């Protein structure tokens, strides 16, 4: 499932892959449902290709999302934001205790939580699904 969910640099939110054409992808915004092209020069990343730095081996984003889902019992994350972001860092520490505090920035943590909330709101929360068997 996460293989078809994309992040496009410079564009807010996440996008669902609809179709492919020569030199571009047709994507649909999960925020507003509008379709648009993503060209070869856009930095497009599949969520299945993202992993989080830890003190040991990197952890796939899918596993982090699954940990959050178990902690929140399938609901969205509710965090009271603070000026220094301590609440976000503490939250990630509860779901991924050995994350690399030097290489995982506050903006990354906020993005992970925002992406998780968006996927749950849209009903795209089957993070255990094996992406390789999907094709």
Automatic annotation (TrEMBL):
InterPro entries cross-referenced by the UniProt entry: BVU_3817-like_C_sf, BVU_3817_N_sf, DUF5606, DUF6852
Any Pfam family matching the protein: DUF6852
Highest taxon above the source species: Bacteria
Residue intervals of the DUF6852 domain: 50-119
Coiled-coil ranges per UniProt: none
Occurrences of domain DUF5606 (ranges): 2-47
Name of the protein this chain belongs to: DUF5606 domain-containing protein
Protein's organism: Candidatus Caccoplasma merdipullorum
């Amino acid at each position: 499932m996460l293989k078809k969910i994309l992040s496009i640099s410079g564009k807010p939110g996440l996008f669902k892959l609809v179709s492919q054409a020569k030199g571009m992808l047709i994507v649909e915004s999960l925020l507003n449902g509008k379709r648009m092209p993503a060209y070869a020069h856009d930095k497009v990343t599949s969520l299945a290709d993202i992993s989080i730095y830890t003190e040991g081996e990197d952890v796939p984003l899918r596993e982090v999302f699954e940990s959050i889902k178990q902690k929140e019992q399938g609901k969205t994350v509710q965090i009271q934001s603070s000026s220094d972001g301590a609440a976000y860092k503490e939250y990630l520490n509860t779901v991924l205790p050995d994350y690399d505090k030097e290489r995982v920035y506050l903006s990354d943590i906020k993005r992970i939580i925002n992406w998780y909330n968006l996927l749950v709101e849209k009903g795209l929360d089957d993070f255990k699904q094996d992406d390789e068997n999907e094709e």
